[in-house]
Amino acid sequence: MPCHADYHQKTITAPCENCHGDAAFKPASKFNHASAKFPLQGLHETVPCVKCHPVTVTNNVSFQKFTGIQYKQCSNCHADPHHGQFGPNCMSCHSEASFHTVKGISNFDHSKTRYALENKHQLVSCKSCHKNNVTDPVKHERCIDCHTDYHYGQFIKQGVLTDCSACHSTKGFTSTSFTIEQHNAANFKLQGAHLATPCFACHKKQEKWSFRQIGIHCADCHKDIHEGFINKKYYSETNCTICHNPSRWGDVSFDHSQTQFAITGPHATLSCRACHFKKDSLGTEHQQFAGMSANCSGCHKDNHHRQFETNGITDCLRCHNASIWKIANFDHNKTAFKLDGKHQNVPCAKCHKTVTEQNITYVLYKIKDTRCESCH
Ligand code: HEC
Ligand code: HEC
Ligand code: HEC
Ligand code: HEC
Ligand code: HEC
Ligand code: HEC
Ligand code: HEC
Ligand code: HEC
Ligand code: HEC
Ligand code: HEC
Ligand code: HEC
Ligand code: HEC
Ligand code: HEC
Ligand code: HEC
Questions:
Q1: Residue 351: is it exposed, middle or buried by C-beta count within 10 angstroms (0-12/13-18/19+)?
Q2: Could you state, in order of their start, the residue ranges of all structural domains in the chain?
Q3: What are the mean pLDDT values of the chain's consecutive 10-residue runs (376 residues total)?
Q4: 217, 223, 225: which to mutate for ligand 9, most atoms within 8 A of CB?
Q5: Distance from the CA of 285 to the center of ligand 8, in angstroms?
Q6: What's the pLDDT at 3?
Q7: How much is the pLDDT for 190?
Q8: Phi, psi of 271 (to 5 degrees)
Q9: Assuming Cys at both sites, which of 44, 47, 298, 337 could form a disulfide with 40, CB separation 3.0 to 4.6 Å?
Q10: Measured from the CB, is residue 275 less than 6 Å from ligand 9?
Q11: What pLDDT score does 223 carry?
């Protein structure tokens, strides 16, 4: 066959009849690809010859390349869609059967990719993130590339949605890395008892978490138990901090001198409760603030059995001050009976006797008869 001798341009050295039968050169009926250096397996068997053996035409002479083809690596012919992430050995995961069946896919080491799967993400199915082809790019700079905004826009600041990663990790959304310091930079500082209050007590409203419009004034969350008891001029409805702090309700401070009754002396050591909360006969406490009498006798029993009453009122401060019951403001010489001469050293009780009248014992100060002879 002189005409055909040059057909393969000496790239094939075996005798023509190894591959060609008598009938025709085409197809090369005796050729079996299994005897080539690169046996065809799997899906390669269905690939048209020309895809691996391209035909070129030079000076009207066509030539099909059968030898001198690189084949040691799959990547000699297949582009690496993984951009080299998994190294050159495609066979460690793939075979000619299919690129979509991958050896050991169930324990595929995702950390070889640009995106490591951590914590809860390890439980997520591949399809949830790889909607179509695994090798299609998947945005993953921010959590919100994949997660919808659970908080319906509450964390949009200056038009930008704060990424979930500012407060959450892949460990789970039920916990948060949001710190007390961050909280205190927001509209409401966490102090005192609020530090020990679980987040949900303030933020969970009907199943959903809520971080806005939950109120920031004490009275937004706490019932104003003093409604109707304290004159509003002493505090604004919303601000209980005139008296309270978030540590303990009983820890009260108030400038009492604003009222008609300054708190001094022994009263300063008393709790507000001692004067403003009283138990009834059933033991139930009732508060009273407005309409209280500033008179000592409003709270203290008149030890003197009304001897010093004028028009039904005894002004205790005429003789006492608010520090001690020992008399302070009293000058005997302003009474109708001056204590002078020998009388100055006579003990009070020598003239002011303890008397009992209708079962009540008291010291008699109002001595009606001041003549010498009434005593001498
Ligand atoms: C190792 C196998 C092999 C050997 C040896 C071989 N050929 Fe081929 N030859 C082929 C194959 C395969 C084709 C392409 C057949 C096809 O297109 O179906 C081919 C094609 C041809 C064609 C072109 C047929 C056409 O109609 O396009 C000619 C001519 C030819 N060979 C001649 C020769 C000659 C002459 C020799 C010996 C000097 C030879 N071949 C040796 C495998 C071989
Ligand atoms: C998936 C790629 C691929 C396909 C498809 C393919 N081949 Fe090959 N073929 C190769 C490789 C690789 C070699 C080895 C090249 C070398 O030895 O340099 C080869 C070698 C050959 C050789 C030379 C054998 C020798 O002994 O020198 C012939 C002839 C050949 N193929 C014919 C065919 C024919 C005919 C088909 C279609 C039925 C075909 N090939 C399909 C990849 C392929
Ligand atoms: C010599 C070139 C060549 C080599 C080497 C080669 N292939 Fe192919 N392979 C092809 C061609 C050409 C196709 C046809 C698909 C196409 O049109 O791209 C193909 C198709 C496939 C297909 C089926 C089509 C698909 O995309 O799903 C698989 C699977 C495949 N090759 C796996 C491999 C594996 C695994 C290796 C390494 C062991 C390998 N191939 C080595 C050329 C090659
Ligand atoms: C560490 C394992 C691993 C290695 C090594 C690896 N791949 Fe893959 N490859 C995969 C996985 C996983 C898929 C996705 C399979 C699927 O579709 O479910 C894939 C898919 C593919 C696909 C199909 C892409 C698509 O979008 O349909 C091609 C092509 C591919 N690989 C080529 C290669 C080539 C070429 C190499 C070698 C350079 C290689 N792979 C090495 C794991 C690997
Ligand atoms: C939580 C989301 C998520 C899950 C679940 C996930 N992946 Fe991925 N995967 C990604 C991201 C993000 C990338 C990086 C994509 C990029 O760079 O564009 C990636 C990359 C890959 C790549 C490399 C793609 C390439 O470019 O070649 C492969 C392969 C892959 N993943 C396979 C898997 C397999 C197999 C599973 C299931 C076992 C899986 N992934 C589960 C998010 C995920
Ligand atoms: C400014 C901080 C912050 C940001 C930003 C943030 N979260 Fe939250 N998220 C929280 C807090 C605090 C909770 C209540 C968590 C707890 O203590 O259980 C929460 C709760 C959740 C819950 C409910 C968990 C449960 O109780 O079942 C989901 C789901 C959630 N976040 C998803 C997201 C997603 C998705 C993003 C991003 C779009 C995001 N979060 C952004 C602070 C934040
Ligand atoms: C590439 C997409 C993707 C990215 C990026 C991504 N996730 Fe996911 N994540 C998912 C998918 C898909 C699921 C499973 C479906 C679901 O629960 O929403 C999931 C599930 C989770 C879960 C488990 C949900 C549960 O209810 O237990 C947590 C927690 C989580 N992601 C946190 C994060 C955090 C935090 C970030 C940012 C640091 C992040 N994810 C980034 C895709 C992503
Ligand atoms: C957003 C709602 C909210 C706001 C605003 C708020 N609190 Fe609270 N506070 C709570 C919750 C919830 C608790 C824990 C449950 C409880 O004891 O009522 C609590 C507990 C307390 C306690 C401890 C009660 C106890 O019995 O130990 C005090 C004291 C307190 N708050 C005072 C204040 C003061 C003072 C303000 C204003 C500066 C204030 N709170 C503002 C919700 C709030
Ligand atoms: C003018 C001072 C004052 C203001 C303002 C004030 N409180 Fe009080 N509150 C008190 C005093 C005094 C007590 C008793 C404290 C004690 O136990 O010693 C008290 C006790 C309480 C108690 C505990 C009651 C109990 O039985 O132990 C609560 C709850 C309370 N206040 C809520 C509020 C709220 C809510 C506001 C704001 C709307 C507010 N208070 C404003 C003075 C005030
Ligand atoms: C020793 C008794 C006593 C103690 C202790 C005391 N108060 Fe008073 N408080 C009074 C008297 C008496 C009045 C009435 C004064 C007046 O008419 O203005 C009064 C009036 C008030 C009023 C004005 C009520 C109104 O609506 O007119 C407030 C508010 C008040 N007290 C708060 C407190 C707080 C807070 C404390 C603790 C820090 C406290 N008080 C401790 C005796 C006391
Ligand atoms: C709103 C009620 C209230 C008023 C008004 C009041 N006190 Fe008191 N006072 C008390 C209470 C309660 C105590 C402590 C309990 C006790 O010792 O009786 C107390 C204690 C005292 C004490 C020290 C305790 C003792 O018995 O030694 C003196 C002194 C005192 N008061 C003087 C006065 C004087 C003086 C006035 C008039 C300026 C006055 N109080 C007005 C409620 C009041
Ligand atoms: C005219 C002067 C005067 C007036 C007004 C007065 N007291 Fe006295 N009080 C005295 C004298 C004197 C003593 C005895 C003081 C002493 O021994 O140091 C005294 C003692 C007391 C004692 C102490 C008793 C004891 O056993 O230690 C009490 C309590 C007391 N007075 C309450 C009152 C009350 C309450 C009022 C107003 C309702 C009042 N006093 C009004 C003069 C007065
Ligand atoms: C020698 C007798 C005598 C002695 C001692 C005496 N008193 Fe008197 N005291 C009187 C007489 C008499 C009156 C009546 C004067 C009057 O009604 O104005 C009186 C009145 C008072 C009154 C009533 C004043 C009033 O405004 O109603 C007080 C209080 C009093 N004495 C306290 C004292 C005290 C305290 C002492 C001791 C330091 C004392 N007395 C010692 C004789 C005495
Ligand atoms: C309310 C009773 C009372 C009246 C009124 C009274 N005294 Fe006295 N007087 C006494 C008492 C008690 C003593 C002390 C006597 C004693 O220790 O026994 C005393 C002592 C004296 C002494 C000193 C006596 C001695 O032994 O040291 C003289 C002097 C005195 N009185 C004079 C008078 C004169 C003068 C008057 C009338 C201007 C008067 N008294 C009114 C109760 C009174």
A1: middle
A2: 16-104, 180-216, 230-294, 300-375
A3: 72 92 90 95 96 92 93 95 90 92 84 93 94 92 96 93 95 93 93 95 86 91 92 81 94 93 90 94 94 88 90 88 83 93 95 92 93 94
A4: 225
A5: 22
A6: 64
A7: 95
A8: -75, 155
A9: 44
A10: no
A11: 93
Nearest-ligand number for the alpha carbon of 86: 4
Q: Compute, in angstroms, the gap from residue 235 CA to the centroid of ligand 6.
A: 37
What does the pLDDT read at residue 1? 42
Going by C-alpha positions, the residue among 289, 233, 301, 303 that lies closest to residue 261 is: 289
Pick the atom of ligand 2 nearest to 68's CA: 18
**Mutate which of 3, 4, 6, 7 for ligand 1 pocket (most atoms within 8 A of beta carbon):** 7
pLDDT of residue 238: 66
221 lines ligand 13 (CB under 6 A): no
- One-letter-per-residue 3-state SS of the chain: CCCCCCCCCCCCCCCHHHCCCCCCCCCCCCCCHHHCCCCCCHHHHHCCHHHHCCEEEECCEEEECCCCCCCCCHHHCCCCCCCCCCCCCHHHCCECCECCCCCCHHHCCHHHCCCCCCHHHHHCCHHHHCCCCCCCCCCCCCHHHCCCCCCCCCCEECCEECCHHHCCECCECCCCCCCHHHHHHCCCCCCCHHHHCCHHHHHEECCEECCCCCCCCHHHHCCCCCCCCCCHHHCCCCCHHHCCCCCCCCCCCCCHHHCCCCCCHHHHHCCHHHHHEEECCCCCEEECCCCCCCCHHHHCCCCCCCCCCECCECCHHHCCCCCCCCCCCCCHHHCCCCCCHHHHHCCHHHHCCEEEECCEEEECCCCCCCCHHHHC
The pair of three-digit structure tokens given for residue 255, joined into one six-digit string: 């400038």
Q: Relative to the CA of 106, which ligand 5 atom is closest?
A: 38
Ligand 5, CB within 6 Å, residue ranges: 81-82, 85, 105, 108, 110, 113-115, 117, 121, 124, 126, 128-130, 134-135, 137-138, 140
Verify whether ligand 9 is closer than 6 Å to residue 93 (CB atom). no
